[in-house]
Specification:
about 240 residues, alpha+beta, 60s Ribosomal Protein L30, Chain: A, 4-stranded mixed β-sheet, 7 helices
Length: about 240
């Protein structure tokens, strides 16, 4: 064998281990990538079987909503009773005097209590103005009564921003006739409606309120107690622990 052939053979022998050191990590990386792909597909199947979020199915939105109350009026009534007046004042407690929405008093027309309803509607207008509703925002209109021989109520309404969601009671399919692991259509609807009804200020859903001013005097007292490693008398009086 010639010297050139011998050198070529030696170079090829040296390249073999070097190629192995390069190829083996590449093969290992490829195997890991394939395993990761299998794991991803497996997780996607599991995630897809998780039920839908009820907050997505029944979202709480902020929109204008009519605030309505019906005031019953008898045929022989000649004014508003104390109970009716207190109920109406309670209804006006939710009226936002800063935005001053229009307050509409709808009086029946063509009913057996037309005259009595007209008198009561004027008293309702006076009570509303006394409780902070601008007189320019109060209007009295008439609506056609459904029955001429029956007494129809006075309906008072105004619009306000309220948190609300869709109406409950949607049952498009039998909840037992399904093999899918998902929430039924009406799931969580009542909970979302109750939560929206409890919000005094719907703007709280949009962002936090501005912080109130700090009570510097009270803050100084608390810091002094903390520095002395003491306990305030108010905490001791309110505590149920006596030992």
């Amino acid at each position: 064998m010639s010297q050139a052939t011998t050198n070529a053979a030696q170079k090829t022998a040296r390249k073999g281990p070097e190629m192995s050191r390069i190829v083996r990590p590449l093969l290992a990386a490829a195997v890991l990538a394939l395993l990761a792909g299998c794991a991803t597909n497996r997780d996607s199947v599991v995630v897809g079987s998780i039920p839908d979020d009820y907050r997505t199915n029944h979202p709480i939105v902020i929109a204008e909503k009519n605030q309505t109350i019906d005031i019953p009026v008898g045929n022989t009534d000649r004014g508003i009773s104390r109970g009716q007046a207190e109920t109406f004042v309670g209804y006006l407690s939710e009226y936002d005097r800063r935005t001053s929405p229009a307050l509409t008093i709808m009086t029946p027309s063509g009913a057996s209590n037309d005259m009595a309803a007209t008198t009561v509607s004027r008293e309702l207008m006076r009570i509303a103005a006394k409780n902070g509703v601008p007189s320019s925002r109060i209007s009295i209109v008439r609506y056609q009564a459904a029955y001429a021989d029956a007494a129809s109520p006075i309906r008072v309404t105004y619009t306000a921003m309220r948190a609300q969601t869709d109406r409950c009671g949607s049952w498009p399919e039998d909840v037992l006739n399904t093999a899918e692991n998902k929430h039924y259509a009406n799931f969580g609807c009542s909970y979302q409606n109750n939560l929206a009804a409890q919000l005094a200020n719907p703007a709280d859903l949009l962002g936090p309120r501005k912080q109130t001013a700090i009570d510097a005097e009270n803050r100084g007292v608390v810091i002094d107690v903390y520095r002395k490693r003491a306990i305030t008398g108010e905490f001791i009086d309110a505590s149920e622990v006596t030992y």
